[in-house]
Design brief:
The protein has about 400 residues and is mainly alpha-helical. It contains 17 helices and two strands. It has a two-stranded antiparallel sheet with strand order 1-2. Strand 1 and strand 2 form a beta hairpin. Helix 4 runs antiparallel to helix 8 and helix 6 packs antiparallel against helix 12.
Length: about 400
């Protein structure tokens, strides 16, 4: 059978770029919605009178809800038009974010975070599926780099601005602002993004949840992509959550100086991400991933070892870390999108999103378990976390060479 006649392949270059920009901005709001909880910790613990562990559950609830939702969606994502799934999931994210703004109690805030996480996880996976369907393989690296610029904007603009707004008007305000911005983007996406049904096979009968998983998981190529995805996330996320406390306690940075660490690190990626996208399209993608991943080992070792250097050198370490640790995702994401046939891509990206979210929670737990605090307050064991991260990076490189491009 042939795919249905509805197609997005006739989009002009200008319209294609507009769609990618909208997807990037939607991803920006999604990432800020997740990241903003961590710097709001002092305000929320004081507002609700909760413990550190209870606040930690607020953060993890989002990630695990995203994992479960993505896991369910992995079986059914390819039954529907991509645009409708994107809008439904983004609408759910708006509801969850508005629920956070209006939450009167800790329990209702937890529920709102679960709702936001569930729909946010689906939205991010479907957005990448749209890029895979919309953009030909030879230009997909640059397209992925543009959409993934949302991470850089979140670090440079979204989170600092949200913290500033919260300091002026309270912790509710950033969530109200995000809800309003998401509502505008929802309308723009509805009008701009075309119906996307090329992955649907005419006359195909709906399949069960188990059959959907069976089709997805019987392909060895998918397993290598999932393994690589898990290893990359484990490598990064066992280091990233502990950068801030180690900069303060081990390196002596103040909280205001720490802001520069993230600001500069995020700013440089605005320049380097498009460059990695061009490299991804120009050269053999496993080679681009190989060199980017290998180079990421250098800043991983630097950031996990006590350097005792000035703020200038700390910012240089931040720049290297953000450039290469985040940059390696660009060639891999393009490889991941090409690792499945179009009719399986939605399930592929949703399952990959679930793997990444589960790996995020596991990685933070592993990293935290390896760390101890000395009587002086210094954090010990971060070097060992760095060595393990480097080992997982090398394992990811080995697994990535087994991924084959099929579409």
């Amino acid at each position: 059978m042939l795919p249905s006649s509805s197609s997005s392949s006739a989009l002009s270059p200008a319209r294609e770029r507009q769609v990618l920009l909208v997807l990037m901005l939607m991803g920006f709001t999604n990432i800020v919605d997740f990241m903003i909880m961590m710097p709001l910790a002092p305000l929320l613990t004081r507002e609700f009178g909760i413990t550190t562990a209870q606040f930690g559950f607020l953060v993890s609830a989002y990630a695990f809800a995203a994992s479960i939702a993505s896991l369910i969606m992995a079986s059914i994502a390819d039954r529907f038009d991509r645009k409708h799934v994107l809008l439904l999931s983004y609408g759910g994210l708006i509801v969850g974010t508005l629920g956070c703004a209006l939450a009167p109690t800790y329990a209702t805030l937890v529920i709102a975070r679960i709702v936001a996480g569930a729909f946010g996880g689906i939205q991010s996976a479907i957005a990448l599926s749209i890029v895979g369907d919309l953009v030909p393989d030879e230009r997909r690296g640059r397209a992925m780099a543009l959409v993934m610029m949302s991470f850089s904007l979140a670090a440079v603009l979204g989170v600092p601005l949200s913290i500033y707004v919260a300091s002026l008007g309270g912790w509710h305000v950033p969530f109200f602002a995000l809800s309003a911005l998401c509502s505008v983007l929802f309308i723009v996406a509805y009008r701009l993004i075309p119906v996307m049904r090329r992955h649907l096979i005419a006359g195909a009968k709906p399949i069960s949840l188990i059959q959907g998983y069976a089709e997805l998981l019987r392909v060895p190529n998918h397993w290598w992509a999932f393994l690589t995805s898990a290893l990359i996330i484990l490598s990064g996320m066992m280091v990233i959550p502990f950068i801030a406390p180690t900069r303060v306690t081990n390196e002596g940075l103040s909280e205001s100086q720490l802001a520069y660490f993230y600001l500069i690190g995020g700013a440089v990626t605005i320049v380097t991400r498009p460059y990695f996208g061009r490299l991804t399209d120009r050269y053999y993608r496993p080679h681009v991933f190989y060199w980017t991943a290998l180079l990421s080992i250098i800043p991983i070792l630097l950031v996990t070892h006590r350097l005792g250097v000035s703020l200038l050198w700390q910012n240089m370490v931040a720049a290297l870390f953000f450039i290469f640790v985040s940059g390696r995702f660009i060639p891999f994401t393009a490889m991941n999108a090409a690792a499945s046939a179009p009719q399986l891509r939605g399930r592929m990206m949703s399952f990959s999103s679930a793997v990444q979210n589960f790996s995020t929670g596991i990685a933070a737990s592993i990293g935290g378990a390896m760390l101890t605090t000395s009587p002086s307050g210094a954090i010990l064991g971060y070097e060992a976390v760095g060595y393990l991260s480097c080992l997982l990076t090398l394992m990811a490189v080995a697994a990535a060479y087994r991924i084959r491009a099929v579409s």
